[in-house]
Amino acid sequence: MKFKGDVLHKIKNKLFISALAFVFLFILVKGSRAQSANIHFTPEPAFSEIFPQPLASVLRAIERDKTITIDWLLNNQLVNSDSATISWFDNENIIFSVPSLDGNQDRPLEMIHIHSNAKRALGLGTDPVVSPDKQWIAFVQGKNEARQLWIMDSEGENFKQISQVKDGLFPSNFFTKYIWSPDSKQVVLLYKQNYTYEDPDKITPPSRIELIDIETSHISSLGAFANRIKDLSWIPNSHDILFTQERMGHEYKDDINYELISTLNIENKKIRTLAKFNGWQQQLEPQSSPDGRLIAFLYDPESPLFDTTQSIGFIKNDGESNNESPEITRLTQDIKFHLPAWSPNGEQIYVIRSYGAYRQIYSIGINTGEKTQITYGAKSVQNFSLSPDGSHIAWIDLNAHGEQALRVA
Fold first, then answer.
1. Contact, 397 vs 383, CB < 8 A?
2. In 3-state terms, what secondary structure has residue 178?
3. Which of 223, 286, 334, 337 has its CA 20 to 30 Å from the CA of residue 306?
């Protein structure tokens, strides 16, 4: 037995030394890449990004009238998995919704005044999007085949269904996005028809983009894609919409995987590719600058097949060119960011920074890369939204007890 123990000990030592050598080699390679990157600002000292964070109080069990069983968990695994949502109606009012406690897909939609805290109900639905002229609010409502896109006026009245999606919109908003045209007369709807993975031989339905006239209810197709379409937004001063195409081969019975940052012109249906990434970047989240000339996005140049630490990068947009391999200006490194949003003046990008389960809001200077922490405290920010004029920022945070709060600064 002693002989076997010595052998095992030697094997463990060799494995340990090999692991150390691999880590050392990885650090050297990553360091050399970082040195060769085109950075336009002076890096801050090591560990300058780590801030002391107070620990949350110990959790206490709270007795309720229901018992959590295995069956309950299996039947409710997707219920309340998302956070409350917020969006600005104007510079003084916020539309918000809170996940339903009974598992209903539709939530109460309410508007709150940031100074008086006065609230008023708007109805039931999810993911409200305000038109640029503040006259209409688009939202999703209903179940199964009746789950469709609706609009209502700013008073929560004059409801009107504007989509006609066969079998209804997908229950999760992951496959459903919609944006208003700048003139508030049309809505661009992105969706994937409701489906399940139960049939292994069934081909995943395409992602579809439609243009809906809210006055006439006329629906025209802008395209169908054998990819996941995400991150839908409008490029200012143009007829182009910006989005991500995510190709996951296993969904289409092949092994072709890539990510595209693309645009689509709603008038001539021309599609342009602004950048291509092999593998599954998954969190590109492209956002156009206020003047439409730059596209900011999240990517991981050190891990091209699957992102682990998303840096902020820029590519140019001239409104005409196709380019799968554009020159990328890298603004940040070695920090994980989410949900980029431009300031109205185009001088900053607001993001959520993640370290572990902890998330806080930062602003990043476009010209300097200077990082400024906006939120603090022993709470994790779930999402945020800038007011139209950039004077206020609202966010939803979560404490260690699972309690969410809406805050404004």
1. no
2. strand
3. 223
Residue 309 token pair: 């630490």
Q: Half-sphere exposure (CA, 13 Å, Cβ side) for 162?
A: 30
* Residue 32 main-chain phi, psi, to 5 deg: -65, -35
CA atoms within 13 A on the CB side of 357: 8
Calpha distance 248→370 (Å, rounded) = 35
**What percent of the chain has pLDDT above 90?**
46
| pLDDT for residue 216 | 93
pLDDT score recorded for residue 51: 40
DSSP string covering 85-130: EEEESSSSEEEEE---TT--S-EEEEEEETTT--EEEEEEEEEEEE
Query: Under a CB-based contact definition with an 8 Å cutoff, are residues 276 and 259 in contact?
Result: yes
Altogether, the residues listed in the chain come to a count of 409
Place of tokens 């009746």: 146
With a cut of 50, say whether residue 5 has pLDDT above it. no
- β-bridge pairing 186-192 and 228-234: unpaired
Look at the alpha carbons of 379, 347, 236, 88 in this order and tell me if their dihedral is positive or negative: positive
Whether pLDDT at 289 is above 90: yes
Q: H or E element: which one contains 250? A: none
Give me the phi and psi of 297, to 5 degrees please.
Answer: -155, 170
User: Would you state the structure tokens that stand for residue 383, as one six-digit string?
Assistant: 């999402």
Burial class (CB in 10 A: 0-12, 13-18, 19+), 280: middle
Q: Of the candidates 270, 267, 265, 331, which has an alpha carbon nearest to the alpha carbon of residue 298?
A: 331
Residue-wise burial string across 37-51, b where 16 or more C-beta atoms lie within 10 A, e elsewhere = eeeeeeeeeeeeeee
| pLDDT surpasses 90 at 233 | yes
Please state, in angstroms and rounded to a whole number, the distance separating the CA atoms of residues 36 and 68: 54
pLDDT at 194 over 80: no
d(CA 223, CA 269): 8
The first and second tokens of residue 80, run together, are 């309340």
